[in-house]
């Protein structure tokens, strides 16, 4: 894997060239770029609300487990505590593994070769192995530069600081607070990008996006390993006991439900914010997604709880069968999220768990048919599970059972309603039934969007033959000194009118020797931590905001086809 920055212009918008802008709004191939995004106060409030949801979910579960222990209900205590500790340990190990790689000294390990040529700096070249330690900024200096030679005292202070960081991170993860640390770090980096000048603002904003991506992935894994089973367990106990629910189990159930809905919406928002080829998700759309998932997961979990309160064995068989079918459905869709085959298989298994409870898009393209099919299957399953439970009740005297059936149906209907509100009114690409927004993400562009100046236009499948008269006319024109068109000329495609193109923008372009992953997958520089460290080092040392350009497979095929045709 190699990343290269050579000063060539590249488009920051979507297209076959696989170009990813360094930050949303950087200069690219869609007219004059709007200023880069800024960290706003509502972003800070969103993170604080995420912390509140995290603490409320964990605190209510632990409080409920302690209550079960004091009441002598050891089975309920064991299951509740198991669904709290086991997922938390898995997530903390993964988070600490990421920390070890990010803060490890790569001096003795081979890294990707990186070369940079900045056209603004008159062709000055810098090379580095990996990224850590390649470029540093002096303490308090606004501009980055090469790291000067350090004395033994400063080296000793650095080693002490490094040891303190390792001890602090070890303690944080032992206390099961890895996600809290990452939330606070993302909040700190976002505020730094707001307070600092333009030179350092983009660097802190990039790091904030990376940290937000990490914590959103960790929270997604944790909620569906902890909150989802906890929700079904507590609902099953409430239904089995009957009567008015106790306050503490109701609080735990509500916190788990809100945590699931919030995590899904937050994951989608961070994913869209990280990709410059997609429009960002507004907070109105995020709230609509929270309500959508809140009511659909509530109906789904309540149907599970009703059925499990009567048919415990058959409920386990149903869950395993549903997970196997959904995992196979995801695998046959050939997802491309991870960097290795085994990581992809594990990811597909986790998505299979998510599909037990709610819809989760994992394949690029229009997902309307797949989403409709999934919700039809879920509707039939909810009706069947609730119907089997209701068939064991006394129809004539049990008014409580009829209320539960109505709650399941109305909750699912409300979830579908908010899903329609999101897609019809609040989707980033525009209303589903109205005109769709253009692919260019720069809304303040002063010129129409077109391919970048150095983009390769697709050649025709075949070239027209030249008649003898045309050859004679061309020879006569050449002898007369008249200008002639070039020999190899590609006809412009649609639209027939000339498309205004932006002038070639000089600046650093980081070229990544990998094909770009398609949405809804994360870009490789968010998944591959070695590549992330390299990009951060180049971005920190560059006087201008670099753009990322992934390898385009289609371009190579087009060039070979052109040469063969000629």
TrEMBL record:
Main localization category: membrane
GO cellular component: plasma membrane
Annotated GO biological process: apoptotic process involved in development; engulfment of apoptotic cell; phosphatidylserine exposure on apoptotic cell surface
Transmembrane segments: 45-65, 77-100, 313-333, 345-362, 371-390, 402-425
Keywords associated with the record: Cell membrane, Membrane, Transmembrane, Transmembrane helix
Pfam families: XK-related
Region listing for Disordered, in residue ranges: 132-152, 453-503
Intracellular or extracellular location(s): Cell membrane; Membrane
Membrane topology: Multi-pass membrane protein
Domain of life assignment: Eukaryota
Family classification: Belongs to the XK family.
Protein name, per record: XK-related protein
The organism's taxonomic lineage, starting at the top: Eukaryota, Metazoa, Chordata, Craniata, Vertebrata
